[in-house]
Amino acid sequence: MTTDRTPPPDAPVAVAVREVRKRYGDRQAVDGLSLDVRRGEFFGLLGPNGAGKTTFIEIVEGLRQADSGTVEVLGHSPWPRNTALLPRIGVQTQASAFFVRQTAREHLVTVAGLYRKDAAAADRSLALVALTEQRDVLVENLSGGQRQRLAIASALVHDPELIFLDEPTAALDPQARRDLWQVLRALKGEGRTIVYTTHHLDEAEALCDRVAILVGGRIAALDSPHRLITSAGARTRLLVPEGRIGLDEAAALDGVDRVGEQGGSLVLETSVPGKVLQALDALTGLDGVITRTATLEDVYLELTGHAAAGGPSPAGGGSPAEGTPAHTLESRA
Ligand SMILES: Nc1ncnc2c1ncn2[C@@H]1O[C@H](COP(=O)(O)OP(=O)(O)OP(=O)(O)O)[C@@H](O)[C@H]1O
């Protein structure tokens, strides 16, 4: 369940970004972005492919120069390359480099050495990402998910205050993903600041204090997942087993905004679920009726211009996204 964990507005700032722009040829990848990440905050950066997330993060990390605007990281400008910042930040990228002919532990001891940390630091970060058992396995023989965890351990080995994680759970199986959530929560519990990019909306909803949704290099929304969901007024979906009531009958129910069909169910969208459930109860009984409340994914899909997966799309809309019902009806109520 989502809770509101937004840090107080007077919390010290870890990352301050003002009017940052970056263009590649004709492509305006980042288009005047301004935001603050507060110390101790778990900040999510979301957005479709090509929205400008990586470009933006790389500018903040000091790996790329902005065309204009200002960035401050822990009180310093990250560009030109600021070596004083390096021990204070940890960076995991989608294309992490490894010493593949070393074992997992040797790799981490090497990385720890670059930061003048000892082997104990390497062992601690191996344990943190649950790779202790694989410590003597060559990096080239680790599975994709294990390498991903090693990349995260490499970003944490020097105990940074500010951690950038770029889709850290992309290659993880569901259990490993949940395990990593625990690791990340523990890091936040220690007061570290985390800037996090993900395409997993459930993950952002579960972990992040605030999220920024980027579209076309701009911020389309920035708030806590809870406030984004409630302020968007996203509707509840009621899934009624097919054959109970007809499409027209459902659309005519008082309080139903839209009706669609999907996966053997009628999908009724409503902002007054209690009222519609009562009406359904009287008509067909509630056996097998499933209630789906709005999620961050609904808000995201609305903002990024896709039809909501698993729910009705507006009648006469564009081509339906995967998982969108084949038939929908706007309510006449
Ligand atoms: N080095 C580059 N040269 C030219 N264009 C680039 C370069 N890097 C990114 N782009 C373009 O800039 C835009 C933003 O890309 P970016 O990688 O920042 O997006 P993203 O949100 O991280 O995407 P994804 O979710 O796919 O990783 C895209 O249109 C991309 O093609």
UniProtKB/TrEMBL annotation:
What residue stretches are annotated with the ABC transporter domain? 15-241
Q: Do the record's keywords include rRNA processing? A: no
Q: Which Pfam families match?
A: ABC_tran
Places the protein is found: Cell membrane
Database matches in InterPro entries: AAA+_ATPase, ABC_transporter-like_ATP-bd, ABC_transporter-like_CS, ABC_transporter_ATP-binding, P-loop_NTPase
Q: From the Swiss-Prot or TrEMBL record, what is one GO molecular function term?
A: ATP binding
- Protein's membrane topology: Peripheral membrane protein
Keywords noted in UniProt:
Antibiotic resistance, ATP-binding, Nucleotide-binding, Transport
Query: What top-level branch of life does the organism fall under?
Result: Bacteria
- Main subcellular location: membrane
UniProt cross-references to CDD domains, sorted A to Z:
ABC_DR_subfamily_A
Q: Does the keyword Ubl conjugation apply?
A: no
Region named Disordered: 310-333
Which family is this sequence assigned to?
Answer: Belongs to the ABC transporter superfamily.
User: What is the name of this protein?
Assistant: ABC transporter ATP-binding protein
**Organism (species):** Streptomyces katrae
